[in-house]
Amino acid sequence: MVTAPVKPDRVQDLRDLLATMNSAPGVVDPMNALVPFGRFENIHVARFVVADDQTLSDRTAFPGVQASERIPLIFLADCDGPGDEMLARIAAEAGNGLRQIFAHCDDFDARADLLAWMRARQTPPTAIYVNWIGRTVRQVREEAALHEALRTALAGMSERNAQQLHGKLRAATANGPRLTPVEPRTLGQWIAFILGIAGLLILGLILLIPTLVIAPFFLIALRRAETTDPVIRKRVNAAYTRAIAIDEDRDITNPFSAIGSLKPGWFRLAITVVALRAVGLSAIFLYNRGRLARVSTIHFARWVLLDGNRRVFFASNYDGSLESYMDDFINKVAFGLNLVFSNGIAYPPTDFLVNRGAWREQMFKHFLHRRQVKTDVWYKAYPGLTNADLARNARIREGLERDGMSDEEIRRWLAEI
Amino acid sequence: MPGTFTPDDAADTQALLKTGFDDLYCCYLLLRIADAGRARAWLRSQMSGVTRFNEVGGGKQLTHGRQMAFTAAGLRALRIADDLVEQFAPEFAVGLADDPSRSRRLGDTGINDPTNWAWGNGAREPHVLLAVFDESEQIRSIAETLAKEARAAGFWEPQILDSGDMGDREPFGFVDGASQPTIDWKNERTPGSDADMAFHNLIATGEFLLGYPNEYGLYTDRPLLAASAPGAASLPAAEDEPAMRDLGRNGSYLVFRQLRQDVRGFWRWLQRAAGSDPAAVELSEAMVGRHIDGEPFAALGQADIPGIRSKPGMARNDFTYAGDRLGQTCPIGAHIRRANPRTGDYPTGRTGLIKKLLTLFGLTGTAEDDRVASTRFHRILRRGREYGRWLDRHDAVKPDAPDPQSGLHFLCLNANPARQFEFVQGAWMASAKFAGMSNEQDPLLGNRAPFPGMQPTDRFTRPTADGPCLVSSSLPQFVTVVGGAYFFLPGMRALDWLLADR
């Protein structure tokens, strides 16, 4: 993710330029002239956001917090392979377009080294979530094509014997579509994974006693903060939400971009960082196969601290409408949202960090709507496909390749095609 | 007791919350205000005829009835201040037809687009809905007399929507209206308790009436007035903010959509796709999710659901899909399974604390079991009526069958249209991705518009025990939206306030 302040008098120009990348509101032209995302076969999702924070006025409830911030341009992509390699490639192959875009930002020199300029403005995430770690764009596309081919083949078969159907479907798709073998974790990756878990357990043991000692003081400080933090009840401006919604529900997946201020002071910052690190670790070690706790609709998400840790930028890609996304948030993972977001100004009051908060449904929705910002450009490599589709297609491929399935297993497999 | 629906409230609530006036004939009058002052006076003169909640039931036989509701445009035409109108639900304040993003979510695109509607859009957006009920078959002339009066009293030429009487059937021939939520009038239940881990049918009053706690135990946003505001003293106090007066209390949002049903196209397609009349009926029943006589599929078994068991007349509603996860009894995409998936807060149903925590943290079960949201946040109270002529399915397939011009005046009540009606219509009915499926929308209501990447949405699949699903393809569009609006059905004291001269 690259972040750079937009020159104040160039914000609208930049928005107009970014809009030329779209073929319709909310629909990017994958081969647009500026940054043709479609040419990079390893990008899952990408976006440009001119993050014009509507909630800076909420800061007046907290004396001493600086009143204004610059509007950043955020360029963000989730891809297969190392991010820095991707950045170098995109700088090389879409340099002209990126130069036109970044020329609207501070300190940009079109003659200078673009890659070095972007690297200097890389903002590391505090937490990243990936729905299925290791699933590549190529795999997604190949498995979708396989599903279609199997569906067509099956529709033309009158055979009802499970084993024979499995064999016939294998034969029917033997010459395509092409399936690149899924690379299993390398030995090195396994070792790193296991060492990671071991390291976490050891760290947990070491920190256990200090944590227990600190806990009572922490709880007292927390309850004091929770009961005395100013409560801000502001309703969203309907016209603002409506303007953002113009870009939404064009695909079954939607982008969500939001920016908001943290409550001032080291205490809230510390909770935020610890909570986000915990989310990030759980995403790697626990929630790496299709679900973040109970929520299965998120493809990619990230949380990034900006502006000397005064603000948090949150970006996600989710299946369904914003109303159903918020429904998932509130009814399935309110505890997690409270943990992470309750340190933000104007979040509905929580009890002990995890209770209430998002359960205050409408106050929470106003909070989210007000912090949401327009995603100026958004690309997804596999339009029309949900996480449910990707997971099912992967199961179908796995079943096709597996030997020795029982009749019942094959029947379950056939039902998914 | 806060949250309780008292006898005072029953006198303050319009009867539609309790009854669909099913024993009476019905016409809907759609009115547009030309002269606010005179129109207000006429509406006030109609107020005494508005049937209240406490005037129905208990053996009382109604001979006639009226209900009165307003669109946001109507409130503005009555000179209600904009900042007050904005305090209603945003979707009501904007309107059903006036936001292309909403239309996209609801499937109101293509031929369903509001620009094609017979009413509800632009200059054809009604201001006032006057629902007229009467025991007399001459309902049309009663409505016409009223329309004539209104025309002379500050309104433009009113539009009259007739209803038909098909008994308990809808135009395709299915027995309709079996499933309704039971409202927790006495506020006996605590929403969010362990009992809610499984599906139940007893729903908080605040999901249907403003001014009462909803399924989150909270009061839905609505217009509140300072007690010192003109006329506000006559309004009830807001339970959650006692210093304020509640303009919303005992009011509800009334969603009205006119759905034209292509009865001939429906049965002709079924006949072609299935080959014979019995097979056509079987396929249609799979699409609906019930037998044509309204009985649920027997293999679903009884479920002993709170809010349904012990309620007379609700035996047809006593089932869930917990034992039919794969949809081999009732297809996952069947109409009634989408409209009311009968899910609880947890896919496991009611369990102990350990299992609950494991589920909460996503450490047990699979994502596939947990794709559908908890139903209790997405209920609506249906009050619709069919219109047009009855056409039997045997006649519908004949080549010379006349067009019966029939359909459904779909009406439903809810307190938060975005979370209730729009969620059900958008995420469950219109979506081609309901419950992790792909390529199919609601088999009855879908508009069949292809998806990005030209993915079809016009299929219907029936899972079977022997493996491959039975797939029906190229379903035509059977139902077209031809009109609609969001109305506010106020409580009587609020109605009085809204119609006061100022």
Q: TL;DR?
A:
The complex is a heterodimer of chains A (417) and B (502). Chain A has 417 residues and is α+β, with helices and mostly antiparallel strands. Chain A has 13 helices and 12 strands.
Tell me what the structure shows.
- The complex is a heterodimer of chains A (about 425) and B (about 500).
- With about 425 residues, chain A is an alpha+beta fold.
- Chain A has a domain at about 125-135 and about 185-380.
- Chain A has 13 helices and twelve strands.
- Chain A has a four-stranded antiparallel β-sheet with strand order 1-5-4-12, covered by helices on one side. In chain A, strands 6-8-9-7 form a four-stranded antiparallel β-sheet.
- In chain A, helix 5 (about 135-155) crosses helix 12 and helix 12 (about 385-400) packs antiparallel against helix 13.
- The longest helix of chain A is centred in the middle third of the chain and has 42 residues, at about 185-230.
- By secondary structure, chain B is an alpha+beta fold.
- Chain B has one domain (about 1-500).
- Chain B is about 20% helix and about 15% strand.
- Chain B is built from 14 helices and 15 strands.
- Chain B has helices at about 5-10, 35-45, 70-75, 80-85, 90-95, 100-105, 140-150, 265-275, 275-290, 335-340, 355-360, 395, 420-430, 490-500, and strands at about 25-30, 65-70, 130-135, 160, 180-185, 200-205, 225, 245, 250-260, 380, 385, 405-415, 460-465, 465-470, 480-490.
- In chain B, the strands form five sheets. In chain B, strands 9, 10, 11, 12 and 15 form a five-stranded antiparallel β-sheet that branches. Chain B has a four-stranded antiparallel β-sheet with strand order 2-3-1-4.
- In chain B, helix 8 (about 265-275) packs across helix 9 (about 275-290).
- The longest helix of chain B has 13 residues, at about 140-150.
- The radius of gyration of chain B is 23 Å and the shape is globular.
- Chains A and B meet through helix 8, helix 10, helix 12 and helix 13 of A and helix 5, helix 6, helix 13 and strand 14 of B.
